Amino acid sequence: MLLFLLSTLNDEEKTKLEKLYNHYKNLMMYIALDILKNKEHAEEVVHDAIISILKVINDIEEIESHKTYGLVVLITKRLSINKNKYEKRRNHLPADVLEYIADEKEIFEESVVCNADIKDLVKRMNELGINDYEIIMLKYYYGYTYKEIAARMSITESAARKRSERARKSILNKMVKREGEK
């Protein structure tokens, strides 16, 4: 996802993001570690925070201002708290459910990583129906939860999960089919 977002930035925005990351990376990691107490989870939060900051990079005027500092701290804390809540809930799920969730996510991410051609991914996403496209964008680009997606689309949470699963599988199948044609 980060590669996709970076490909949409111009050189000035990329430079600004790089400076911001270099200036605040230690602070972000400190905040995330303080809340999560787990290095791997903290690194995920810092990655997600960079993606969130990327979405508002044009609104940031000065890298070393109090306003930017506050934004970075707020985003990192919010994401760390959400991750902490998620991990606590996740630890209470049965092992077979956890395995299913991990398999679905791994299949989708593996297809994207193996086929690093962003244009192909975008093309396959554009072939999706409007509802499937919207769910994929809301979930993986904007970071909405299934509950938030369900409320936004006036469907049940389980319907949002199922549509997301079908859309991911559709993209995966199209990309696998494309690889088979080569």
Order of helices and strands: HHHHHHHHH
Please give the CATH class of the largest domain.
Mainly Alpha
Helix content: over 70%
> What number of structural domains do the residues give?
2
How can the largest sheet be summarized? Answer: none
Number of DSSP helical runs: 9
CATH architecture descriptor name of the largest domain: Orthogonal Bundle
Q: How confident overall, as mean pLDDT?
A: 78
**End-to-end C-alpha gap:** 25 Å
Overall structural class, as computed from helix and strand content, comes to: mainly alpha
CATH topology of the largest domain, which one? Rna Polymerase Sigma Factor, Chain: A
Q: Uncertain regions: pLDDT < 50 for 5+ in a row?
A: none
- Nearest-angstrom radius of gyration? 18 Å
Write the topology of this structure.
Layout: H1 2-7, H2 11-36, H3 39-54, H4 66-90, H5 95-114, H6 118-126, H7 130-141, H8 146-153, H9 157-181
Q: What tags apply to this protein structure?
A:
single chain; 182 residues; mainly alpha; Rna Polymerase Sigma Factor, Chain: A; Arc Repressor Mutant, subunit A; 2 domains; 9 helices; globular
Sum this structure up briefly.
The longest helix is centred in the N-terminal third of the chain and has 26 residues, at 11-36. The chain has 182 residues and is mainly alpha-helical. The protein contains nine helices and no strands.
